[in-house]
Amino acid sequence: MAKLVYLSLFLFLSHACMAQFDRPLWESLQDQQQHRLRAKTQCRIQQLTARGPSHTYQSEAGLTEFWSTNNQEFECAGIEFLRHVINPRGLLVPYYINAPRLVYVLQGSGIQGTVIPGCAETYESESGSRSRSESEKGQGQGERRGDRHQKLRRFRQGDVLALQEGFTHWTYNDGDTPIVTVSIIDVGNQNNQLDLKFRQFFLAGNPQSVKVQSQEREGRSEEQEEQRGNVLSGFDQQILAESYNTEPELIRKLQGKEDKRGTIVRAEKLSLVLPEYGREEQERESRGNKNGLEETYCSLKIRQNIDNPARADVYNPRGGRITTLNSQTLPILSYLRLSAERGVLYKNAIRAPHYTSNAHTAVFVTRGSARIQVAGNSGNLVFDDEVREGQLLVIPQDFVVVQKAGEEGFEWVAFQTNENAMNTQLAGRLSAFRAIPYEVLMNSYGISRQEAKSLKYGREESTLLSAGTSRSPRFA
Fold first, then answer.
1. 444, CA 20 to 30 Å: which among 57, 308, 312, 403?
2. d(CA 421, CA 419)
3. Burial of 215 (0-12, 13-18, 19+ CB in 10 A)
């Protein structure tokens, strides 16, 4: 009887923890836009612009770049965008933010720390200066030495990290190459109860000591000092000393007013131990099998790799590939209400004209170039230009976009403001025209039946269209 009671209690708690990550698809679709109603802004888009970063914050062991939000498309989408570069042995000090965030790892590998409130310290490590026998002896005497902390997660190039607002995060580069990441911050999300501005709350470091380089519209740059500190810097030292039961001298170091290293510091002596990643775990991850009880609140999976070509959702050997990441493949995204896409277009290939019906899209170019055209509801082009590596283009919801890769191909990562972004194709085998009767097309466009047939069935490829098959050299 006791075993039955414990089993019932376990199942009840497991269900409660996973409830928000296990909703039926259509129930999720019904309320997927409600989380952004609070952030409604004027979306009077006259012209879109592919942009690079506008501000650079230089720290001791890396830098942070921000994109300017003083434009129509960022305000309409309710997002902000940034890039981090963390040098080898660099530590991005603990911080939390006010809105959900998705991170894509462009380069490098490292360790991600995420502190989930209320969860246990399930990782233990020993002091580097003590031997195993000394540690066992200390434990036998009832002494608590070494260190305990929450779970550490290793990431690598091509990973997407889903970081929840209000959770404390830190990142360490234990590799030999710089870590480069790009991130979208969904300030328009309902979980952000402040204004539509990205705010970082640092628990350590001294943000005011970083050098800020601002890129002006005319191409001129100027350096300025940012006057801000970590969240502990303004408190009374004596009160904090009593709160931590420690000496005021230690509190002075916590407040970091004399620290000149910025927010990415060099940590040469940092030694972190993670469990070995065995072949069995790799195979289980590649299969994606779950038994329904693996993901509880404290052990949520926050990482998924989208660079592996074998995991592509759309593939054309003559056109390219696309890999999508949504709440069906990474359940925590149902809470963050964000999704991502990794795309590769081969030389001169085309991604068919399409629009996203339930999300804004931020496209960051990771390699190569492409000509992109975007049209709004008036039919006028709001963007018609080439985008290159390092540029960001924000495409509003329902705006139609077409992409044609350049001579070196085109690669991108896109972030979308919905957990299950829905794209509607306007050309190819999955085109909306295929679902429309001939007679409707004939009368709508004033065309013959043969022309309507050509419009519906002229392309057998679905999403990515191979180069060199157009009957006309004109790009459309």
1. 403
2. 6
3. middle
Q: Is 92 helix (H, G, I), strand (E, B) or coil?
A: strand
**Bridge partners for 344 per DSSP:** 321, 411
DSSP state of 47: -
Beta-carbon contacts of 21 under 8 Å, excluding residues fewer than 6 positions away, are 295, 300, 327, 331, 332, 334, 335
- Kind and range of the H or E run holding 200: strand 200-202
**CA pair distance 254, 451, nearest whole angstrom:** 72
Residue 259 in tokens: 């620290």
Q: How many residues does the chain have?
A: 476
Beta bridge partners of 162: 102
- Are the C-beta atoms of residues 231 and 202 closer than 8 Å to each other? yes
Write the pLDDT tens digit of every residue in 240-293. Answer: 999 999 999 999 999 988 888 999 999 988 888 777 655 445 555 555 545 443
Contact by Cβ (8 Å): 53, 65: yes
Bridge-based pairing state of the strands 303-305 and 314-316: unpaired
What does the H/E/C string look like for 325-373? ECCCCCCCHHHHCCEEEEEEECCCCEEEEEEECCCCEEEEEEEEEEEEE
- Res 178 pLDDT > 90: yes
Q: From the CA atom positions of the chain, what is the Rg in Å?
A: 25
Of the pLDDT bands very low, low, confident and very high (cuts 50, 70, 90), residue 144 is: low
Q: Is 411 in contact with 347 (CB distance < 8 Å)?
A: no
Do residues 383 and 393 touch, judged by C-beta distance below 8 A?
yes
What is the rounded distance in angstroms from the CA atom of residue 69 to the CA atom of residue 49?
A: 12
What SS3 class is residue 289? Answer: coil
Q: At what angle do helices 449-457 and 438-445 cross, to 10 degrees?
A: 110
DSSP letters along 302-322, please?
Answer: -EEE---GGG-SEEETTTEEE
What's the rounded Cα separation, in Å, for the pair 322 and 413? 10
For residue 348, give the nearest of 205, 466, 185, 188 by alpha carbon.
466
DSSP run (H or E) holding 113:
strand 110-115
Distance between start and end Cα atoms, the chain: 71
Collapsing DSSP states into helix, strand and coil, what is residue 75?
helix
CA-CA distances (angstroms) from residue 48 to 71, 194, 373, 393? 9, 27, 10, 8
Q: Tell me how far apart the alpha carbons of residues 389 and 54 are, in angstroms, rounded to a whole number.
A: 16
On whether the CB atoms of residues 112 and 161 are closer than 8 A, the answer is yes
